[in-house]
Every structure is written in C-alpha cells, then in structure tokens.
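We emphasize that the prediction below concerns an isolated chain of 149 residues; any contacts that depend on oligomerization or on bound cofactors are therefore not represented. The input was used exactly as deposited, without trimming of termini.
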Amino acid sequence: MMIKLRRLEEKDLDRFLEIRNSSREFLHDNREFRIGETISWFRESERIYYVIESDGVFVGYFRTSKWNLSNGSVWIGADIHPNYRRKGIATKSYNLFMSQLGKMGFTHFLLEVFVFNKAAYELYHKLGFKDMRSNETTRGISVIMEKVI
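Result of the prediction step, given as a token string:
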C-alpha cells in the first residue's frame, strides 16, 4: 500500500464531502453538508486539510488547526471513507503525517475523539497518544489526547 499526502484543493471537494458526510457520526458537527456550502466554507476556512491517497485513490483526509510553531503543537484529525477503514491506512497515514510535520518543527500533536468511536480511540493509543482529559458534550464523552515526539 502506497500512501501519499497532499493539500486539499477545490477540485477535491466532491470526494471530500462524500467522505466527510460518511464520517459525520464521529464528528462534533454531525450535519450533512452540501457542495455549495462546502465550496464557500473551503474558500473562507483557515484550517489546512490534506488528502490521503492510498494507491492513487482519495480515501480520506487530515484536518489541522491551532498551528503553534513556537511550542511545536498542532491539532490533527482524520476521516477515512468507510470502504477503506480497518485496512491499516489510518495507521500508516498518521505515522507519515506526523513524521512530515515533525520535519517542519512540530513535536506535540493533539486530537479529540469520542469514546464511542472505539476503533479510532484504540488506534490513537496504538499510535502512542495519551489521554489528557475528557469532556462531556451533547453528543457524548470525548477525550483530548496528545502525543509528543
């Protein structure tokens, strides 16, 4: 399996939206979005997204926020299309992504996961993330996790 990461572009938004909407049960904002509002959002967003390609197929994406190079921290998260889950893609992608961010000076990775998303929660532990604190939300309990490299 060959994993490639690249910046999300406007031409990717149909597939991005398909993956995002198929993963919305695990997101804080679980509304289903349409392409018109997604294009507007993309043009105005300050977040940086990266496409995850496995053997040339757009299978998921990383989202990033709260970049802070002065302390080396960045918030990250990923969504993988349901047809490509549980195949090792997320593990390989996270390792590659954190390695690339590490070369840019980022050493402190943070994320949030709902505890009902057991597969992701277990994956993050396998990747070396540690629980920091939990939050009670209207959608359930989430855990803030961190990894320092």
